[in-house]
Amino acid sequence: MIDYVGVIAIIFFYLVILFVGVWAGRKTDKAKQGIGEQTEEVMLAGRNIGTLVGIFTMTATWVGGAYINGTAEALYNGGLVGCQAPIGYALSLVLGGVLFARKMRDEGYITMLDPFQIKYGQRVGGLMFFPALLGEVFWSAAILSALGATLSVILNINMTVSVIISALIAVFYTFTGGLY
């Protein structure tokens, strides 16, 4: 049986996300006319995200469906003692912000690999790219899996279909809006 309230809520949620993506895309297009490089504009929002928005963005990047599902499972299986990841993640975000953010911003780095590539050369940067790429692929797969499972339960549709729908919408609004 289909949960019609859930269907309406999900459709509304996706429409809001699409609206924000299209709105951000227009903002990006306007900003590109006045601010330098397109890569920085799309990936770093022109380096003009404030502290509060930056904190929310980093939190939203880390605390996705995979994080929430994994934390719930760890708490269920091992109790509070067995669930150390949220504490470690929170500490790493704070320490990373305090110790590295200003230096990376001042130096104009775009990715975490940039300082290593500058110091150790392009070969080391190229080698470090593969583990980073694998981490991003697996993290994205975990998030899409969690989102697909949620959609599958609420809408009573096939898991594969719900993952594909979620991925297409995410790709569309990311390409449209960039990081804004």
Question: What tags apply to this protein structure?
Answer:
180 residues; globular; Na/Glc_symporter_sf; Na/solute_symporter; sodium
Account of the 3D structure:
With 180 residues, this protein is mostly helical. It has one domain (4-177). Helix content is 82%, strand content 0%. The chain contains eight helices and no strands. Helix 4 (65-78) crosses helix 7 (122-155), helix 6 (114-120) runs antiparallel to helix 7 and helix 7 crosses helix 8. The longest helix has 34 residues, at 122-155. It starts with a helix and ends with a helix. The model has no long low-confidence stretch (mean pLDDT 80). Keywords: Glycoprotein, Ion transport, Membrane, Neurotransmitter biosynthesis, Sodium, Sodium transport, Symport, Transmembrane, Transmembrane helix, Transport. Belongs to the sodium:solute symporter (SSF) (TC 2.A.21) family. It is found in: Membrane. It comes from Acrobeloides nanus.
